[in-house]
Amino acid sequence: MDPQMAFNGPLRGQSVVAGMSVSGGTANVHFHHAANNPPQTAPLRVLPFSRNEDVVVRPGIFSQLAQLLPVSEARHAALCGLGGSGKTQVALEFAYRRADDDSSCAIFWVHADTEATFTQDYALIARKAGLSAPNSEELLTAVCHFIETQPRWLLVLDNADNLRLFGVGVTPSSEQASSKSLNSYVPKGPTGSILWTSRDGRIAGSLVGPMRAIQITSMLPLEAQTLLVTARGSNLKDDELDDAVALLSELHYIPLPVSQAASYIRRTAMPIKKYLSRLRDGKKRWALLKKTDFDRHRREGVSNSILETWNITIELLNEEDKTAVKILHILAYFDNQNIPRKMIKAVAAAAVATADTFSEVACEDNDGSWDVSCAESESDEDPEGDDQDAGDGDDIPHVTTNDSDKGEEDAKDTIDAPSYAAGHSDNIEEVTTDSDNTTDDSDEDTSDSDDSTEDALTRLREFSFLHMTTRPDGKQVYDMHKLVQEATLYSHGVEKNSSSNASHSQMAIRILTNLFPERKRETWEDCETLIPHVMRLSRCAKIPGQELPISNLLGRASDYLYDRGRWSEREVVDELVYSLRLMTLGQRHLKTIKSMTQLGVTYHGQGRYRESERISAEVLKLHQEVLGPRHPQTLRSMAELATTYHSQGRLEESENIKTEVLELQREVLGRRHPETINSMAQLAITYHNQGRYEESENITTEALELSREVLGPRHPETIKNMAELATTYHNQGRYEESENITTEVLELRQEILGPRHPETIKIMADLAITFYAQGRYKESENITTEALGLLREFLGARHPRTINTMFWLARCWNRQGRDEEAMALMNDCYRLHCDVLGPEHPYSKEVKDDVDSWVLARREAEHPSG
Question: What PANTHER family does the entry give (predicted)?
Answer without folding.
Answer: AAA+ ATPASE DOMAIN-CONTAINING PROTEIN-RELATED, ATP/GTP-BINDING PROTEIN-RELATED
